[in-house]
Amino acid sequence: METTTIIILGVVFLVSFLLIEGLYFLISDWRKSKYRQMNRRMAMLSEGRSSQEVMLRLRRESAYDAQGNILEVLANKLDGLLAQSGAGVSIPQLFMICTMFSLISVGAFFVLQALNPLTIAVSVILPFLLPLLILKLVRGRRISKFNEQLPECIDVVVRALRAGHPISSAIGLAASELPDPIGSEFGLAVDEMQYGLDLNESLTNMEKRVGSPDLRMLVITVQIQGEIGGNLAEILSSISRVIRERFKIRRKAKALSAEGRFSAIVLGILPIAVFLAINVLSPKYYTLVQDDQGFIISMGIGMILMFIGYFVMYRMTNFKI
């Protein structure tokens, strides 16, 4: 059997295996979608699971500790991305999904008979990074939804404090009444307090899991109030008003920059789309000059300038408020 045939069969086997794995994860995710549409913690408790089991599972899904050597820091950064996006998958599963995307892309170029060193590099690197980009988008949307729910959650806590409840009981009341993502996150903080952590530690852990700047402001406020005293209900009420105003300003800035963001997306996708289209329509277009030194240098300079342009457009259309 020829070497090329063996390679083709190996690629087909890997693509088939990873497609089956991907379908399995999609079906599992669909079956668990009810947990994402409501408070996951309350849903698991209603199934008869103990609070300790629920806490351990949610903490395992939200593991985040950015210490250690370079590989450990990278793994923990990925853990943080997965936890803050609420994906519920592990790093090996994420790596398998990224590899599946790359193999499918390489297989598509092979079927179209458009494989060359450039298309192999593009079809391996870009699809491999695609799930990470999707996770970053999902994380951003989850944090935005959390920030949108946060003022309402603070109002529930304030009403409970004014009714005479302690802060831990007030947080537990908010956790049981609000949907995800804020319901499960506050519920996990309550579970941590019940199993030995103090209020400051549990809130700090929640801030690391979520990654919201508004939540960080709330956590710092509660920590300072615990040290110097004061009317916590009034302080939290003021924080709620500030967060609502910040949310309004963010929405206004997003609306004003919508045209610029759309232009940045089009300009970012266009060079890659043209490159792929040329390779599909005329596979020999680049292969005729791929060994030329001037072509290699010009392609390198072009890619560097393209990424600089992406960075500039991103900075021009994204505002931190």
UniProtKB/TrEMBL annotation:
Record flagged with keyword Plastid: no
GO CC terms of this entry: plasma membrane
Keyword terms, alphabetized: Cell membrane, Membrane, Transmembrane, Transmembrane helix
Family matches, as Pfam families: T2SSF, TadB_TadC_N
Membrane-spanning ranges: 6-27, 94-112, 118-138, 260-282, 294-313
UniProt domain Type II secretion system protein TadB-like N-terminal: residue ranges: 4-124
Bilayer topology term: Multi-pass membrane protein
Protein name: Tight adherence protein B
Annotated source species: Limibacillus halophilus
